[in-house]
């Protein structure tokens, strides 16, 4: 327990004691002295009125002082619980008593035991390809903490034990293909990654089970397993083909990130918003709009992490279903172009979508080092701008090499929920952050699919003029 907190406790005891002594005050207005002038407290005559006044002054100054932060936290929590005030002030790390910390961690664990924690983005399949050549027989995913090369690789954050410790209820596993595969073998690479995800689920069937709907997530969570979903990162993976997009959906893919660190021939990416860069399409091309419409028809979520602001705007103009940011932060907190400006956040709320907050240091702190508190700042800012109903978590574990302290791997999610409890979040709101918001988004996407059921598949091809000469080098005529 901190010294400041101990001092506060002493002052409270003194204040209460002196209040009790006030009943002994006699008619002459003096404390501790009988009417005949004799001493009544162990023969020690003290001017207790002055002591009382001085102690009361210290007590009042202690409360109002901005230097004493532990006691106001207790007051904040009491206010919120009693009158429903949401307090979003972000404080710096403090010495918190172990009893309080353990209590909040216990509550966090209980929340994540009754509501599935849905993480929007994990690149484990990519790391398996890099470190094990996609050969699942070469390692045991149960525990990789002390197993090389996993234990020494800065992008290795995931195994089954840590997933369980982190109370993960559902995970979007990402089928990622690098930009160098664009206009080459990106569809093949994406399918190989999807195949790897299926093999992973099958090999560890006692832990994982494939999910493709919101209801399946809840059903699998009730069985004590981790619901496993598939997202494709990088729209170049479809090879500019709506037929490949539809095939991905049939393979279980439930979201696609429209771009990665490169533009596609139909959508601009976030790097084009950097100083000195210029847009190519000024958002989506006509074919890009068709892709969004077809994703709506299929019931595949449109992920606009990694895209430019103009592309975000165009997607929000076109999409009939809620859209997602699977792993992004708030631009107002860290002005990296991978993050989302406030005006887009407001449009996202009107769209009914969700932003799943990322944990990568450069995106949360605009620096190579970061802590859990930087992530909290993003969450709190987004909540201040659009409310709690549109926030989720997308750590980007196994896809980055620098993560915040206290969020070092997938086992650390309860730390984040415990800190938000300390900052005044209610359990109901933490349930939304954990998974209820994402379940709502998925159900609405599924509903839009049903509403668009009479719509025929879009059979357009990308216009030839949208492709640069270097884009056509690996293309052949069907005939």
Automatic annotation (TrEMBL):
Cofactor(s) needed for function: Zn(2+)
Reaction equations catalysed: an L-aminoacyl-L-amino acid + H2O = 2 an L-alpha-amino acid
Topology in membrane: Lipid-anchor; GPI-anchor
Keywords: Dipeptidase, Disulfide bond, Glycoprotein, GPI-anchor, Hydrolase, Lipoprotein, Membrane, Metal-binding, Metalloprotease, Protease, Zinc
Gene Ontology MF terms in the entry: metal ion binding; metallodipeptidase activity
CDD domains xrefs: rDP_like
Subunit organization: Homodimer; disulfide-linked.
Name the record gives this protein: Dipeptidase
Organism: Daphnia galeata
């Amino acid at each position: 327990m901190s010294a400041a907190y101990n001092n506060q406790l002493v002052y409270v005891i003194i204040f209460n004691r002196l209040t009790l002594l006030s009943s002994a005050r006699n008619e002459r207005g003096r404390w501790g002295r009988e009417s005949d002038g004799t001493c009544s407290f162990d023969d020690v005559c003290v001017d207790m009125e002055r002591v009382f006044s001085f102690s009361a002054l210290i007590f009042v100054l202690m409360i109002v002082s901005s230097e004493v932060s532990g006691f106001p936290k207790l007051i904040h929590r009491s206010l919120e619980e009693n009158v429903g005030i949401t307090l979003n002030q972000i404080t710096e790390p403090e010495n918190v008593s172990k009893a309080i910390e353990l209590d909040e961690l216990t509550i966090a664990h209980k929340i994540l035991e009754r509501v599935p924690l849905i993480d929007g983005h994990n690149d484990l399949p990519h790391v398996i390809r890099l470190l094990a050549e996609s050969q699942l027989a070469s390692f045991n995913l149960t525990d990789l903490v002390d197993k090389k090369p996993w234990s020494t690789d800065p992008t290795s954050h995931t195994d089954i034990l840590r997933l369980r410790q982190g109370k993960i209820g559902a995970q979007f596993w990402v089928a990622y293909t690098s930009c160098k595969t664009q206009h080459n073998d990106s569809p093949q690479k994406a399918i190989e990654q999807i195949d790897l995800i299926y093999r992973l689920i099958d090999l560890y069937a006692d832990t994982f089970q494939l999910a493709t709907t919101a209801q399946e997530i809840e059903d699998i969570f009730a069985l004590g397993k981790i619901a496993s979903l598939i997202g494709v990162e990088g729209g170049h993976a479809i090879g500019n083909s709506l037929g490949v997009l539809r095939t991905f959906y049939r393979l279980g893919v439930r979201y696609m990130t429209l771009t990665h660190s490169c533009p596609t021939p139909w959508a601009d990416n976030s790097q084009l918003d950097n100083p000195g860069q210029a847009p190519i399409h000024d958002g989506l091309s006509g074919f890009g709009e068709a892709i969004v419409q077809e994703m709506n028809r299929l019931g595949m979520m449109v992920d606009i992490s990694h895209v430019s602001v103009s592309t975000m705007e165009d997607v929000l103009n076109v999409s009939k279903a809620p859209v997602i940011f699977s792993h992004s932060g708030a631009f107002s907190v860290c002005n990296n172009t991978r993050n989302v400006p406030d005006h887009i956040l407001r449009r996202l709320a009107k769209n009914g979508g969700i932003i799943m907050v990322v944990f990568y240091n450069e995106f949360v702190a605009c620096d190579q080092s970061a802590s859990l508190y930087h992530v909290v700042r993003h969450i709190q800012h987004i909540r201040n701008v659009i409310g709690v109903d549109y926030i989720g978590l997308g750590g980007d574990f196994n896809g980055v090499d620098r993560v915040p302290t206290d969020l070092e791997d997938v086992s650390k999610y309860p730390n984040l929920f415990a800190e938000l409890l300390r900052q005044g979040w209610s359990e109901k709101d933490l349930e939304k952050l954990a998974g209820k918001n994402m379940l709502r988004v998925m159900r609405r996407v599924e509903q839009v699919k049903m509403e668009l059921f009479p719509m025929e598949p879009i059979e357009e091809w990308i216009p030839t003029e949208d492709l640069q000469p270097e884009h056509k080098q690996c293309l052949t005529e069907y005939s």
